[in-house]
């Protein structure tokens, strides 16, 4: 099971999500099991890389975060518009990503419980967020062995209140 996040163009992101879903479906039809996160990332990054070299098409101007759960552990990958991809334990991207990465380097450890990880993620976002963070302008997702779950706005509001 993999979930995707993006930075930059919503239209480009949607094209890549459709492609990723199609790749995952094709894999499932052949092997009767979900595609491993690493293989999905590799295939999507390959598509992105092809667009940097193909005539008549514009390269994808988007970076992706792809999270998944395979073999009893979480995976997080980042791919950039060139098709390069990297595995991370935690990362930040987008405007002011350096602040987020610096914050994560100080706060992240492998033993974080879910509640602490959610607080750390929101605090990391707050490091470079312009304006007021509310339950209306941020989303929080959890990817674990049970699948992917997006927190409700009410749950996000509770977490925001806890860090205020």
From TrEMBL:
One of its GO terms (biological process) is proteolysis involved in protein catabolic process. Keywords: Proteasome. GO terms for cellular component: proteasome core complex, alpha-subunit complex. Pfam families: Proteasome. PANTHER family: PROTEASOME SUBUNIT ALPHA/BETA (PTHR11599). Belongs to the peptidase T1A family. This is Proteasome 20S subunit alpha 2a.
